[in-house]
């Protein structure tokens, strides 16, 4: 029997004109459902006729701050919820890294859609029933926890390891010999270093050959991806998700040519950071998402804060949904240095292209005489300090268009993170611009 190529061929390969008609029908239903069931949306959303997908621009935005305020106004779930509490069967919560943690509620159907989407993403990346998957994400209210059920749905052997010490995780890898796992790019690198410190060669002594990475831009940075793949002798697949909708809602296929977004579950807008107008393919903008099937808490024009580029071009794999060609950072991570927008991901691409550096880095932003300054901390393995400073400063200037001071350390000086790496130290007492 021939193995199927797609988890849901009809949906994943739907021509874009047909897909947009399908989305419009779902959008009308989603808005009607939200206005009927949610006290917030009944007042917030104008009663307008949507004739095309473009008409979504007539609707107001929802932000994380609005979600937080509405939750606090009517605890525990807020007045954006569109179903009775007895229909809510699961909640996750955001990390609260940029504010008070917010709950994300799911009905039984929402949760089933979530898990089926995870199975679709896993299948797209090449996971099959013969594979073994070790799930090393946190289960404590983290939306990534239940994603393991997607591996089980497609028939893979799923090992629920959770967030455990690296040494114990490596013991499980040696014992059960999984060939798939999911983590952040920073932790994939850290875990490899931990293995080497235990006199293990990750590419030869361990079984992991497929890494799913999310939570940071690194998985989509060519230099970072190639370094992790070389360290482990593995393939790296980048995923994107957010707790406000459900786990991963986009992921790369075996072509590894961008991140396919599940457009049967959401409408994607990419908007100019200054004007709010849609940007073209390949241009950076903030991603705005609108749910199409979410019942517990629909999200209409949710500003994710993520800076992305996209393409509508059909992938070589045959899938037609919009692809993110880059997740470059967050609006709240963006630094403006002497009028130039700087993202940590841009610095990372330069640092990890230089083989005499360990790949770890940190940015220090300060202000001198009303002008913002940038310093970059790195770890050197081979060259003299002046050589490192000259080569890296020149490369940063060429790529980013800004001058940076280079601070050189010995290997192992900078902190290693087991979750999302903290790349910025901001010493400015007041930030503007």
Automatic annotation (TrEMBL):
Residues 60-289 form the AMP-dependent synthetase/ligase domain. It comes from the Archaea. InterPro entries: AMP-bd_C_sf, AMP-dep_Lig_C, AMP-dep_synth/lig_dom, ANL_N_sf, PA_CoA_ligase. The keyword ATP-binding does not apply. It holds the Pfam family AMP-binding_C_2. Gene3D superfamilies: 3.30.300.30, N-terminal domain of ligase-like. GO terms for biological process: phenylacetate catabolic process. Its EC number is 6.2.1.30. SUPFAM superfamilies: Acetyl-CoA synthetase-like. Keywords: Ligase. Residues 339-428 form the AMP-dependent ligase C-terminal domain. GO terms for molecular function: phenylacetate-CoA ligase activity. This is Phenylacetate--CoA ligase.
């Amino acid at each position: 029997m021939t193995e199927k190529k797609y988890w849901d061929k009809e949906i994943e390969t739907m021509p874009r004109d047909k897909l947009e008609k399908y989305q419009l029908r779902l959008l009308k239903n989603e808005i009607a459902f939200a206005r009927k069931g949610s006290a917030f949306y009944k007042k917030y959303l104008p009663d307008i006729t949507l004739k095309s997908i473009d008409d979504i621009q007539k609707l107001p935005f929802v932000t994380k701050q609005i979600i937080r305020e509405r939750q606090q106004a009517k605890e525990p779930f807020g007045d954006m919820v569109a179903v009775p509490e007895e229909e809510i069967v699961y909640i996750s919560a955001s990390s609260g890294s940029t504010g008070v943690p917010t709950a994300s509620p799911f009905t039984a159907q929402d949760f089933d859609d979530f898990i089926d989407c995870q199975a679709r993403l896993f299948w797209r990346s090449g996971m099959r029933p013969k594979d073994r998957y070790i799930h090393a994400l946190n289960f404590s209210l983290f939306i990534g926890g239940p994603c393991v059920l997607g591996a089980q749905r497609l028939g893979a052997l799923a090992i629920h390891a959770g967030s455990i010490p690296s040494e114990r995780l490596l013991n499980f890898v040696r014992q059960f010999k999984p060939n798939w796992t999911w983590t952040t790019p920073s932790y994939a690198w850290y875990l490899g270093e931990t293995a080497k410190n235990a006199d293990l060669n990750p590419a030869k002594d361990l079984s992991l050959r497929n890494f799913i990475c999310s939570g940071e831009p690194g998985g989509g940075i060519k230099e970072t991806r190639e370094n992790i793949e070389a360290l482990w002798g593995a393939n790296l697949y980048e995923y994107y998700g957010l707790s406000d909708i459900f786990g991963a809602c986009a992921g790369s296929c075996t072509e590894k040519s961008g991140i396919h977004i599940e457009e049967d579950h959401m409408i994607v807008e990419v908007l100019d950071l200054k004007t709010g107008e849609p940007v073209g393919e390949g241009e950076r903008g903030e991603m705005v998402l609108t749910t199409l099937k979410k019942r517990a808490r629909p999200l209409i024009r949710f500003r994710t804060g993520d800076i992305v580029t996209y393409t509508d071009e059909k992938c070589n794999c045959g899938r037609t949904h919009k692809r993110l060609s880059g997740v470059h950072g967050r609006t709240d991570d963006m630094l403006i240095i002497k009028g130039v927008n700087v993202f940590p991901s841009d610095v990372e691409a330069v640092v990890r292209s230089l083989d005499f550096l360990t790949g770890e880095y940190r940015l220090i932003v300060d202000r001198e005489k009303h002008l913002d300054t940038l310093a970059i901390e790195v770890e050197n393995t081979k060259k003299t300090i002046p050589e490192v400073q000259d080569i890296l400063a020149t490369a940063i200037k060429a790529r980013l268009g800004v001058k940076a001071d280079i601070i050189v350390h010995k290997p192992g000086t900078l902190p290693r993170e087991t979750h999302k790496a903290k790349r910025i130290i901001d010493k400015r007492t007041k930030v503007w611009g």
